[in-house]
Sequence to fold (374 residues):
Amino acid sequence: MAVPVTDTETEHNSSTIETPLITQSQEPEQEEEEELKDTQAQLSKSLHRLECFLKLLGFCQCSVLSFTLSRHCFLLLGVSLPLIIINFSYCSNCEKYEIRVFELEILASQSLVAAISIICISHNLRKYGARKFLFVDHRHGHMTLFLEEYLRKIHDFFQLLALSVLPCFLLKAAREVIHVVCMHSSWWQSVGVAVALLESWTYSTVIYLSGTALFHLVCNLQVIHFENYGKLLERDLDVSVYVEEHMLLKYNLSKISHRFRIFLLLEFLVVTATQFVALLEITGESGIINFVNGGDFAVSSIVELVGIVICLNAAAKISHSAQGLGSVASRWHASVTCSPYDASHLGMTNNMDSLETAYPSGSVPRYYSGSDLE
Fold:
């Protein structure tokens, strides 16, 4: 005989059946949250490593102590040490292997480009902080896609710096070794002088190329958002989202231009003047110019031109992305204007009444003020 099933048993059975389904649906969300937290932790570690590297070079001058140490370190290691070595190790009968005027002019050029880099970059870092300076904001940073791109770009920064410094260091080291062999003076004194000059040169070169690589990093981080804007236009969103994102990208582009314009202008001027001086000195020298006594001109020119190429590459990338952004936005605007269905689907009419409703006069959100544009 059939046993009747009560309502209580029915509810119990349905709950036992539904509970595993709820648990299974929550598992992907939990995995995504854990993956997001891991990526955020990796980004924080990368930013912390970048900040430590910049502090080591003296870029981060958030306190009076760090400011004083950075300035004294640069003056002692980047200027005073090579200047003392050039003056005290000069040999009046050794013009075949060392020309004092060349050495002093090379020291002046490498000190100037390094000083411009550390002054301009440290000013921006002190004023905005690392995250705001790099535009690694929380508004975009919560998306896993951007977090992974941020990590890759920061890794590329260190890789670019290493690939730029290492070949130049090997060339400089080869020149110093040949100079030590040709001088025929005290072995230990020559080795000590060469090591000290290499340390000073490496310090100044890394500071200069780090400044140019930071500009390259800032531009590449912003290119991520320029490229994503085209994908954003393909989504079915309210027009206010597109306008807001476009204004933010335009604001960030203007901030990058304002923060780096003095840095780029001074670096271009100094490098150009240095190349002309090197040309005049080499062509005006009556003696024999070889790799030993004139090789530092070649090394210095290569380093400076590498930094300029890095800056030009970053500027070309972000300019190309900005132009592409304008092209994409124009095509999207033409599409939604000419298509009645798309315009109504996006909440737009031919007379743009909905846009005026979403953004009344004076209520369009702004991300900058006059005081921000230094």
Remarks:
- The mean pLDDT is 78.
